[in-house]
């Protein structure tokens, strides 16, 4: 083994990517001839007289370039090259085989062993310098590519960290959004109310809820904010405050009477008020659809407004299903929009479902939407299934219809089920 001398010729170019060169040849004379040229060009040169000795040098001082004789005792050049390629390295090492062989099969054998280039012995100095320059261009591209890959990996690691942080925040946001629907089921005696809220992502733009007005009156609503994701979820949080069940003073659907009790405004007035609030107080391009219902538990009379939301479905005690409303305008699109109320009477065994478009716009594998007809079939199939079990079964039926457990839109619903006979007034 011959280690490099400390001195380097003045004016030598040591700025290239090839700086450390290993010369492997069982002929001491051949090593000296090659080393002399390499040192004159400014390279740090190591010498080895066998493949075994060369491997030891490669472990301690990984070379940028290896020049190895083909025919050597003990371990041939191709065998040494194959071992060299199996070594763990930070950067690629360029390998040139020195040989007198010119047959194509021999060259193919050398390439298969991992050699990058060949030089015919005796080595011409000008040709050697040209082959080194070619190798340097390849190594430079490899180093530049490695650096770019390093930067890409570093950037991806940073993005992954940001994604993990965002994902953690969204998980917490989902918990907070789900907490907006604190009561998923309530038994009011005369009727039962069940709520479903299933976001297609961490957070979504659907919202359902109920609030007490008096011992015999309740309000119900279903909302679907345009778009998906964080901005839509923030809008639902704002709307939940406007229709708060816990703070009636903040609920725009309620007003305090002279006696100090609360009463519900006509649903058309409430939605018109929400339309004004959205357009005047929120600088956003978001809008939402909605159904708001004023339910009289004593009489079974329900006053509703449909504002661009899917038609509410009423299923009578005999299992028949009908859809209510004329559509109406979404909220937050047009100033001064007017909304029309309509009424329906419920009897014992009847139930009303207010649902988002994620239900009826569920598509099968052929792209066919479930629609009102499909929802009618599902409600008839689940005629004997009540409460939360009914809503959970609807979600299962939607998955079965699409042959997919994942949802590409939020799904929400309010299910009102009457238990007592109505008293028509």
TrEMBL record:
GO terms for molecular function: phosphatase activity. InterPro entries: Bact_Sigma-Reg (IPR052016), CheY-like_superfamily (IPR011006), PPM-type-like_dom_sf (IPR036457), PPM-type_phosphatase-like_dom (IPR001932), Sig_transdc_resp-reg_receiver (IPR001789). GO terms for biological process: phosphorelay signal transduction system. Signal peptide: none annotated. Keywords: Coiled coil, Hydrolase, Phosphoprotein. Residues 138-176 form a coiled coil. Gene3D superfamilies: 3.40.50.2300, PPM-type phosphatase domain. It holds the Pfam family Response_reg. The modification 4-aspartylphosphate is found at residue 69. CDD domains: REC_OmpR (cd17574). SUPFAM superfamilies: CheY-like, PP2C-like. Residues 20-136 form the Response regulatory domain. This is Transcriptional regulatory protein YycF. It comes from Roseovarius aestuarii.
